Amino acid sequence: MVLGWRSRKHSQRPGGKPELEVVIPNHFRCPISLDLMKDPVTLSTGITYDRESIETWFEAGNYTCPVTNQIVRNFDQIPNHSLRTMMQDWCVQNRQFGIERIPTPRIPITPMEVSEVLTYVQASAKRVDQYGCLELVQKIERWGAESERNKRCIVENGAAGVLASAFDVFANVSIERNASVLEEILSALNWMFPFQMEAQNFLGSQASLRCLVWFLKHQDLSGKKKSIVALKELLSCGDQKHVEALADIEGLGELLLGFIKKQISPTITKDSLSVVLYLISSSSSSNEKMKLVFIEMGIVSSLLEILLDSERSVCEKALGVFDTLCGCEEGREKAYNNDLTIPVLVKKILRVSESATSISISAIWKLCQVCKEG
């Protein structure tokens, strides 16, 4: 029986006829989610599931078929086209009850397809063929937009390293001439975090870092956002040579402070604070220099203004930067001489988060040294 009906006992339509509701046939439901399947696939055990549900099941570390409890040794998922066609016909027959036809799912990409395209990307980059590379990266982006499964397949087959390498090549030749393909590559890299070592090294090259800073200065809001996110992720990997290389780029401090002051985007503000924190708290030789650069540019007062009214994550980042700057004499002096410092820090205690409370107390304790020194 494909179609089931159930009468609602206490509800009648005008004319005395009982109102009917649609019952989804059991064999159209996923045994895991119990919802109507959108992309039915059959395992080697003979049981059909919705693709997204069974993939989530396996990704959670399960190796058995949920219905039969058999150990699954072959993880191939065979699309059940016959069942999907029956389901689509059923949806069409019941559209008057608000049932929407399930779309025909796209076939997921395979590792072989990804490897092939990445080989072409490498060849295009080697020839410095920006238009050929642009088309290939856009194809990767389209694949990624189709499903999370596709994204995982792309990332697991080394896309980040290949794209970061191409980014380095085009940035080395000319940032201005190759801006379109560079931004497209950066857009794709933005959903491939965290980076493996190969991608880190290419994106952390002098040419790549200069390109990212150039994007911060010259690109639109979307380009700025992609660039600052990439910088934050790169520095979070903990390689001090990338921190030092970035700190040496002229004009970086002014750009980051400008983003913090103007707050043109929550993401840009928060990630700019993260980048500043990495620059001033690293174990590299450049951190003391960067502290002085930001202090002389007036970052202390800008941080206090942000702390007056900001959401929790931004507040925690700003407090982290403020506390780190109070670790040096020049930073403590600037903070101590600002009338907002103590009221703002005290206000953040027990009102934002446990982390914010801890950082605020740390900053106040450091400021007490000014009184002792005085």
TrEMBL record:
| InterPro entries the record matches | ARM-like, ARM-type_fold, ARM_PUB, PUB22/23/24-like, RING-Ubox_PUB, Ubox_domain, Znf_RING/FYVE/PHD
Domain of life according to the entry = Eukaryota
Query: Enzyme group, top EC level?
Result: transferase
In the record, biological process GO terms are: protein ubiquitination
Q: What Enzyme Commission number does this protein have?
A: 2.3.2.27
Q: Which CDD domains match?
A: RING-Ubox_PUB
GO molecular function list: ubiquitin protein ligase activity
Reactions listed under catalytic activity = S-ubiquitinyl-[E2 ubiquitin-conjugating enzyme]-L-cysteine + [acceptor protein]-L-lysine = [E2 ubiquitin-conjugating enzyme]-L-cysteine + N(6)-ubiquitinyl-[acceptor protein]-L-lysine
**Keywords of the record:** Transferase, Ubl conjugation pathway
Please report the stretch or stretches of sequence annotated as the U-box domain.
23-97
- Pathway membership, UniProt: Protein modification; protein ubiquitination
Short name of one Pfam family for this protein? Answer: U-box
UniProt function note: Functions as an E3 ubiquitin ligase.
Q: What's the protein here called?
A: U-box domain-containing protein
Q: Which organism is it from?
A: Quillaja saponaria (Soap bark tree)
